[in-house]
Amino acid sequence: MSNKSKQDSPLVKAVLALDNYLTELGRVGSKINSTDMTSDFDVEYVQKLMTRFAECGQGVSEEVTTLSMQLHEAQARAEFVAQGVSRQAELFNSRRSEQNEQLEKFRILNEKVRELNAALSQFRRPLGHGLTDEDRAKLTSSVPAVEAQLAVLIEELQNLRQSARDSRMKALEKNAESLAQALQAARKKLRDLGPLTTDGSGGQK
User: Fold this and answer.
1) Is 199 helix (H, G, I), strand (E, B) or coil?
2) CB 113 within 8 A of CB 179
3) Within 34-132, where are the H helices?
């Protein structure tokens, strides 16, 4: 707020007006009090001082009333703003709690994805590393369970993505969508593996 805006406010004007009257009241009162009423003084001058002092006293009284009214209005405005801030604080806390809850869900899902990726690593044998019959049997038997875990995680991530979209959490929505797409790609690769077979020497075909 500029200095001009501050000076133009009713509250500041009331304070300045009261200060002016008080200053003038003190100045005139000092002159009256310093006058030797037992001497040959200027009666008309002292009368003017008395009149001016009474005017300043009336001005002080009026400005005190005005200032009191302005303070009351300022307090009412402050309380109104405070009520709005209080409502915003409640919404902020609610929003922050919601975000923390959603981020915690994503963290847990992300951890599950890491664990599942570790399980999927067994299907990513480097070239030249054949599978024994025992390996093939274990992998074949584990495919349905892995696929089921993938399906559950994909569904949970899609639900989280939709929830983040409804709550306008764009970053979380994007992260959940990216992770879900990565799992969908992993599930497709798993299905594309088809039946695992070995040649007569125990190598993978």
Assistant:
1) coil
2) yes
3) 43-120
> Do 39 and 88 form a contact (C-beta atoms < 8 A)?
no
- Sign, Cα dihedral of 181, 187, 190, 195: negative
Environment class of residue 62 by beta-carbon count within 10 Å: exposed (0-12), middle (13-18) or buried (19+)?
middle
Alpha-carbon distance 92 to 96, whole Å? Answer: 6
| Cα–Cα distance for residue pair 10/140, rounded to 1 Å | 83
Supply φ then ψ for residue 195, to 5 degrees: -65, 130
User: Would you say 25 and 57 are in contact if contact means Cβ atoms under 8 Å apart?
Assistant: yes
Cα gap 192→18, rounded to integer Å: 88
Amino acid at 66: T
**Residue 186: its H or E element:** helix 170-192
Where do we find the tokens 């709550």?
167
Predicted confidence (pLDDT) per residue in 49-98, tens digit: 999 999 999 999 999 999 999 999 999 999 999 999 999 999 999 999 99
- CA 6, 9, 15, 17: dihedral to nearest 10 degrees? 110
